[in-house]
Amino acid sequence: MSKCQCGLLEKQAADPRIPIAYNAESDSYSLELSKDFTVPDIYCLHCGGHDLRNRHHDYPLCRCGKLDQWAKNPALPVRFYFKQNTYHLFLKEHNRVMAIYFCPACGGGTGLLKKIDQMPRPEEKDMKDIMQRLRGLTTIEQVIQILGEPDKRHGPMTSPQQEKQIYGIKDTKQSLIYKFPAKSLMLYVCQYEDDTLGFSFSGIIEKKLSFLKKIKYYRYRIKKYLQRFNIILWQYAPDTPAEKLLCHHKISRKIIYAASFCMISSMSLLASAFIFDSEIEGMIAALLGIIGVLLFIPALFCWVWASEIEKTLKQRQHPLPARLSLEKSIPFWALQMMLWFAGLVILASILHKD
Questions:
Q1: CATH classification of 124-203, choosing from 1.10.3470, 3.30.1450, 1.10.3210, 3.40.50?
Q2: pLDDT tops 60 at residue 216
């Protein structure tokens, strides 16, 4: 059986940014994960040696466990994304991430292709109806005249000349995205560098999330947003000592607790100031509130930072004790905050009794 049916393995071997090499003597390809570790005679990461035109076929899943072993080794560029339950090849030098559809060691699927196949697909009739309206159009202006202003507009997008030669792709001057909720499809219109137009369709994914999943989703979005501003916090080398990670985790915990106690103290003193009409408590509450607000943004960064440290330690088989883990200590932390709030209110009521 051929180890690549789609032809992408040959193209990736010619791409200097991808660590795949061709061995003419054995007529095979190898994947260089590090200077000291190379996987010989690999399967294509995109097709696994299977004919992907038969999308209804159930491809065998990876059973060798190699991807899981590589992902647990921080020195190797294979990453497992828990949110998507998928594996990726992280090429840091070229700022590129490659999805791994099939295991390069055994050719078994990673489940990513099945996820894509399960995504909603537009009806053939609906696509034909739209293409009938666009028949004969050659410019973006004509498309807009027929369909109106797009929901989104992107571009231009350029690719390196070498990449264009290897993969046979073109630069995009601009792209238009039209949503048709009634037909449950999206239309993508691309204007290429030679002014030709390309049309493609996809289904619309309807996301219905429970309340808890919404909280997790927004927490994930905030985390990803904060990571855009990261300069050095998450760039730990694979040989960074665990003691240093634990020290940074301790610093982040202290900042989080300081911000929390300031905010809770401010709220409790503000409550007692309103109840007992005390100006002094109001001023102290305002001061603590200002300190808490100033610490709030650093505390957010520290929360994400500490979560990444915990994940790194877990990958190194050096998990934190439950009492130090942020996520596992949330119930205890919440109880502390409630007791602190109640204690300050009770103390204020005792003092005002006298």
A1: 3.30.1450
A2: yes
